[in-house]
Amino acid sequence: MADIEKDIQWNYKLRNLLIVLLPFLFVISIILIILKKRLYEESAGILLFLAFLDAAVIALLKRKYYNWSLVFLLLIVIAIVFRSQRWPMTGIFFGFGFTGLGCVSLFSSAIFFKKYNHIPFLKYIGFSSSIILSIVSLGLLWKNMHWPLAGKVLNLGLVVFIPFLFAFIFTLPGSNYVNWDKSERIVFFRAVIIPMAFLYILCALMFVFPDLWTSLTRLPLTPFRMTDLDLLNKPGLF
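The structure assignment produced for this chain is given below.
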C-alpha cells in the first residue's frame, strides 16, 4: 500500500514538472523561429517535438482517454508550424495528429454512449459530436495530404455539423449542466468543446479565409538563404 502511494506521489510530481516545462518549450521554440536562422529553426523543430512528447507523457500519467484529444491537437499545431517553415516530417505529423484525433473521437463516442446514461445530453451530444469529429478529422487529413475524395468526406462532416449545432444549442438549456460533477465537465470540454472548436476554426481558415491560411502555412522562402549583394564601386568593375 505504501509503495502504491509513493508511485502516485511520484507520478503527480512528475506530471506537475512536465506541465511547467511544456510552456517553456513552446516559448523558446517560437522565439527561435522568429529569429529565422537555420540553426535556430532546426533547434526549434527539436523543441517542438520534445513539447509533443512532454504532452503525451502528461496524458499517459493522467490515464484519462480524453486528454489524448489535446495531445493530437498539439501535434496538428506542430504540423502547421512545420509546414509554414517547410521543414521535413510535416506529413507524418499531420497523419498522426488527424488520424489519432479521429481514432480517439471514435473511442470517445462509445464511452459517451455507454457510460453517461444518467445524463442524456452528454450521452447523445457527446456521441454525435465525437462521430462528427472523427469524420472531419479524416477529411482534413485527406485535404492536407491532397488525397482523393477529401472534399466529399470533409463536406459530409461540415454538413452534418449544421443540424448538430442546432441540436446542441436547443438542448443545452435542459442539460442540467450546473449539477454535473467536475469529471463530467472536464470530459465535456476536453473531448467535445475544445476539439470541435479547434477543427472548425481550422476549417474556417482554410475555406472562408484562404489567404490568411496560405500566409500562415506558406511563409516567404528565400532559396538557399540568399541575401542581396552590393557590388563595390571600384575601378575596373564597370
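Interim note for the steering committee: The helical segments are 2-35, 38-62, 67-85, 90-115, 120-144, 150-171, 182-207, 210-217. The chain has a mean pLDDT of 78.
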